[in-house]
Amino acid sequence: MDQTDQARPHPLQPTYTTAQLWQYLHSLTPKLGDLFPHGFARDYNELKTLQQHHLCTFPFENLSLHYSTTHTISLDVDLLFEKFVGADRGRGGYCMENNAVFGTALRSMGYEVTSVGARVCDAVGGGDGATFGGWAHMVNIITIANVKYMVDVGFGGNGATAPLPLEDSTTGSQRIRPSEMRLIRTNIQQHTDPGQRLWLYQVRETSDKEWQAQYCFTETEFLPRDYEMMNFWTSQSRASIFTQSIMKAKMVMDEKGVLVGALTMFNGDVKKKVGNETVENRSCGSEKERLEVLKEWFGVRLTEKEQKGITGLVTQLKR
Q1: Which of 53, 54, 152, 284 is catalytic?
Q2: What is the pLDDT of residue 5?
Q3: What is the DSSP string of 242-281?
C-alpha cells in the first residue's frame, strides 16, 4: 500500500516513534516477518491478527491499584509504553490502558483510529441485566475502506476477540469456540428519549443460549481529558469494582494461532478455561500463593516495593 493511502494522525493524538512501534510489535511475536511480509497492509485480517496477539500478550488487569506504592493509574502514553513493553514484566492494564496502547500502535501504523466511551452493563458486576453504569469503559473504532469496526482489547474474559463491523446483527460471530459475539443498534432502558441509539456488545456461550449484554458504546469521539475523568473515578472511587477487587485476564492461543481459551484471576481465585470449560482452577489463600500464581500463570514479576503496596488494603489476602 502506498504511503499516501494511510490515515494521517491528528496532531493532538499520540503516536509512537518508529523504534517504539517495532518494539511493541516484536513483543507480540518474534516472527514479525510472518505478520508483515510486505509491510503494513492495514486491512481487516491484519487488524484481527494484531488484536488477537495483543490479547494473548498484554493482560487485562488492575494490579497497579493494589500492588504499587501510589495506587494510581496514569494514561500518559509513554508511561504506558514502559509499563507494557519497556519493562517486560508481564504487565498489562485495564480498559483505558490497554486500548490506549493498542490504539496508539494502530495509529502509528497508519490506521484510522477513533476512541469512544462505553457504559458497562450492571449484570457484568452481578447487578441488573437491563441497566448500565456511567461512562467507564473505552473502545476503539477503526475505519478500513469506509467500514467502521469496533475493536476492544481491554474487557477481560468476555471481551471481543476480533474486529466487529458496526452493523445491526441478528446472528453471531465466532468468539472463542463455541461462544459467539455480536453488535446490535438499540436504546437502553435508562434512556428517557426512545430515539436515542447506542451500539450494544453482546455475547453468548453457545448458539442456543440467550444473548448477554456486556456494554454499550457511542460513536462520539472521546478526548484524552474525557478519559482522565473516567480514569479518576474508576481508579479512586470506593464504589468502583477496580478498587475493591483484583482481576486479571489473558487470552490463550494454540500453536496454530487460534484463540482457544483464557486465564483469569478474581481476587484469590484463578481459572484456566478452554472454550467454555474450566480445565484448571486454584484458590489462593495468602499473598505468597497469589504472587506465585501471578508469576507462574501470567508471567508477572512484581518488585518488593510493589508487593508490599497491598498491605492494609481490602484486597490483601491475610492468611
Answers
A1: 152
A2: 52
A3: HHH--EEEEEEE-TTS-EEEEEEEETTEEEEEETTEEEEE
pTM of the model: 0.94
Pairwise CA distance, residues 148 & 138, whole Å: 16
Res 241 pLDDT > 90? yes
pLDDT digits (tens, 9 = 90+) for 106-117: 999 999 999 999
pLDDT digits (tens, 9 = 90+) for 149-189: 999 999 999 999 999 999 998 889 999 999 999 999 999 99
Q: Which of 56, 95, 216, 284 is catalytic?
A: 95
- Please confirm, yes or no, whether 26 is among the known catalytic residues: no
pLDDT of residue 2: 39
**137 is an active site residue:** yes
Dihedral sign (CA 283, 285, 288, 294):
positive
Strands 198-204 and 247-253: unpaired
Which one from 53, 54, 66, 137 is the annotated catalytic residue?
137
- Verify whether residue 269 is a known catalytic residue: no
- Nearest Cα residue to 84 out of 63, 95, 98, 96: 98
CA 171 to chain centre: 23
